[in-house]
């Protein structure tokens, strides 16, 4: 089954979402020696609850790693277009950042996704 350009673009958007769900870096060697603050139940009731951070699942990480492997099949200008669009950057901003006219940026982005789709096709045939 051949992946369409829309499916490939959706995979890169999912890749961005997964990257944002991964835990951040922790610097080793730094510690706080201040005592922990113990709040009373009344103080806890008045505080805002922390937003729940959803962690990435192993399946999402595996799909992300696969999509990251595809990015090496295109040149650096196409990579920039793919990532800017995966972050849902508006085309007007992309055109300003890359120096391409808006319609040309869209065409180059579509061409980069098509290049990836063409590289994926032989893999699908050989795997089956």
Map the helices and strands.
Blueprint: H1 5-21, H2 41-46, H3 58-70, H4 76-86, H5 91-98, H6 102-127
Helix pairs in contact: 1-3, 1-4, 1-6, 4-6, 5-6
Structure report:
- By secondary structure, the protein is mostly helical.
- The chain is 63% helix and 0% strand.
- The protein contains 6 helices and no strands.
- It has helices at residues 5-21, 41-46, 58-70, 76-86, 91-98, 102-127.
- α1 packs across α3 (58-70).
- The longest helix has 26 residues, at 102-127.
- Residues 124-128 have low confidence and may be disordered.
| Helix residue percentage | 55-70%
Structural class computed from helices and strand pairing: mainly alpha
State mean pLDDT (0 to 100 scale): 86
From N to C, what is the helix and strand string?
A: HHHHHH
Radius of gyration using CA atoms only: 21 Å
- N/C terminus separation: 10 Å
Biggest β-sheet description = none
Key structural traits:
128 residues, mainly alpha, 6 helices, elongated, disordered C terminus
Summarize the structure.
The longest helix is centred in the C-terminal third of the chain and has 26 residues, at 102-127. The chain is 63% helix and 0% strand. α1 crosses α3 and α5 crosses α6.
């Amino acid at each position: 089954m051949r992946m369409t350009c829309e499916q490939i673009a959706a995979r890169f958007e999912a890749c961005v979402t997964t990257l944002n769900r991964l835990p951040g870096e922790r610097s080793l060697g730094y510690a706080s020696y201040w005592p922990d603050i113990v709040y009373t139940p009344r103080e806890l009731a008045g505080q805002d609850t922390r937003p729940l951070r959803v962690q990435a699942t192993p399946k999402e990480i595996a799909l992300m790693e696969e999509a990251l492997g595809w990015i090496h099949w295109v040149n650096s200008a196409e990579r920039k277009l793919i990532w800017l669009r995966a972050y849902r950057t508006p085309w007007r901003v992309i055109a300003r950042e890359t120096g391409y006219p808006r319609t040309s940026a869209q065409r180059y982005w579509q061409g980069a996704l098509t290049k990836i789709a063409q590289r994926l096709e032989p893999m699908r045939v050989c795997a089956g």
